[in-house]
Amino acid sequence: MDKRLKTVVEKINFLNGSNLNYEVLSGGLTNENYLLFANGNKYVLRVPGQGSEVMINREDELANSIQTSKAGVSPKVLKSVQPDYAMVLEYIEGEVMHPETVADDDNKIKKIGKALKKLQTSATFKNKTYVFDLMRKYYQMCREVQAFLPHDFDWIRQLMDEIENAMETNKPELVPCHNDLLSENFIIDPDDKLWIIDWEYAGLNDPYFDLGDVCVEHPLTDEQEKLLLKSYSGKDNHSEYCRMKLHKLTADIWWGMWGMIQDKISSLDFDFYTYGIRRFERFRKNYYEGEYQNWINGV
């Protein structure tokens, strides 16, 4: 156990004196995650990655993790370790999702839609992460750290302005959103309940951003995307469908810029540059192969 981990563990009072073992959990880019074994129980310990506070407000993460736990969509927060902003979480035994396991099972898609509706109607967030405001912030950060941006980024920014202006029509109230719905952030337990984990980037956002983010992170057919929307809203609505499809585009620009910023500032051993490039490539693919102008008109 390294010095930093040992310092955090020593502050977890209900583990004091226990016979403690641990395993390193994979998957996190901005946290160090551990599975703790103590007194016959399992816990998850999340320790913020060094330097991650540049991109993540850990106070907001803690507050939103507690709120989503109370709403019944995420594991309980058992302990907050300060000033480290580490968290001890309830361990959820279950199957971690992957893109193909979601796309191969319509019932899983329905569960995600219903879980997002429960999140947005039951949790209370205070911080705002409106996608267009955040993209302007990330663009400024890219300039400050001299991050790479693709040659056609001026065109991409023009498209984002066009999407933002179109979305002023029938603009919904901002609601609690996760904003980072990789398949690995979904767990289905033995009772067939779906849980959502990892709330670093959560905040108040357009409700259809989360739906668009799910769509872009999973190889869903158009019919499955409509199923996700109907499971969420309970109805077929063309305007909502167009908003969701446009947020498939905004999600990749958000995370493409995020990757390029991380490429400049992160000390983690991860290829953030390629991560960002692939996001921009996927954005172009979805733009050119989709029905962009119809979605703009349909919002």
Summarize the structure.
49% of the residues lie in helices and 15% in strands. The chain has 299 residues and is of the alpha+beta class. The chain has 2 domains: 88 residues, 2-Layer Sandwich (Phosphorylase Kinase, domain 1); 204 residues, Aminoglycoside 3'-phosphotransferase, Chain: A, domain 2 (Alpha-Beta Complex), CATH 3.90.1200.
Describe the 3D structure.
The protein has 299 residues and is α+β, with helices and mostly antiparallel strands. The chain has two domains: 3-90, 2-Layer Sandwich (Phosphorylase Kinase, domain 1); 95-298, Aminoglycoside 3'-phosphotransferase, Chain: A, domain 2, CATH 3.90.1200.10. 49% of the residues lie in helices and 15% in strands. The chain contains eleven helices and ten strands. The strands form three sheets. The chain has a five-stranded antiparallel β-sheet with strand order 1-2-3-5-4, covered by helices on one side. Strand 4 and strand 5 form a beta hairpin. Helix 9 (238-265) packs antiparallel against helix 10 (272-289). The chain is globular. The mean pLDDT is 95.
